Amino acid sequence: MRAPKRVGIFGGTFDPIHQGHLIIAEQVAEALELACVVFVPGGVPPHKEAHTVKASAEDRFEMVERAVRGNRRFVLDRVEVDAGRTMYSVETVPLVKEKHEGDEWFFISGADEVSNLLSWKQPDALLAQARMVAATRPGYDVSNLDHLAAALKNFDRIVPVECTRVDISSTGIRRRLAEGGSVRYLVPDGVRDLIADRGLYGAGKSAVERA
Fold first, then answer.
1. Which of 39, 109, 129, 170 might form a disulfide with 93, Cβ 3.0–4.6 angstroms?
2. Residues 82, 51 share a domain
């Protein structure tokens, strides 16, 4: 009898994807013995104003595609990009599960986002579909999640996983690019090349290539 296949789902705007995202995916996969992590770039993110998403869905998808190359456990899914509309995680997870083989499912998010789970659409239904991984930083007080217990009947399906603290943000990367700064080592080289080639985030190609 084979062991159950564990699969992670990692959604996000990825505007742009950076090394911090990849470190979380790798360390969660290792800690929970996931067979693979399915990256799901958001097409029209529900919790952000449209003007705050700076790169197109296709550009963000291609950045993620380049970022995950070379890692056999990382795969990519276009379900939200192809939908062309706002999709909530509770809608996305069943569609991903239909397209990928797995027995146990884990939805990966940062602990700070998980602490706001009550603001998500149908959080208990989402927890019924997949266990929620709260990726924490070293020293994070997991009691910050205790307030969810009284409101969620599936609270016990939230799994904290400690990951290396990496203070990189997509917002900070976009700001550096707009100011002509270097993002080398903040994003994978393939992502950096695409940003340069397409002039994303106000970055001049020659400036990015020099940085």
1. 129
2. yes
Separation CA 36–CA 48 (nearest Å)? 28
Integer Cα distance of 164 and 60 in angstroms: 24
Residue 206's pLDDT band (cuts 50, 70, 90)? very low
Residue 158 and residue 108 share a domain: yes
The single residue listed with the structure tokens 């307030």 is 147
Asked if residue 120 and residue 193 are part of one domain, the reply reads no
Better pLDDT: 42 or 204? 42
How many domains are contained in the chain? Answer: 2
pLDDT digits (tens, 9 = 90+) for 101-131: 999 999 999 999 999 999 999 999 999 999 9
The tens digit of pLDDT for each residue in 19-55 reads 999 999 999 999 999 999 999 999 887 766 666 789 9
Both 71 and 133 in a single domain?
A: yes
> For residue 7, what are the β-bridge partners?
36, 105
**What gap in Å lies between CA 115 and CA 79, rounded to an integer?**
26
Closest CA to 67 of 32, 113, 27, 26: 26
Quote the Cα angle for 180-166-134, to 5°.
Answer: 130
Sheet of 131-136, strands arranged across:
74-76, 36-41, 6-12, 104-110, 131-136, 158-162
Q: Which domain holds residue 188?
A: 169-211
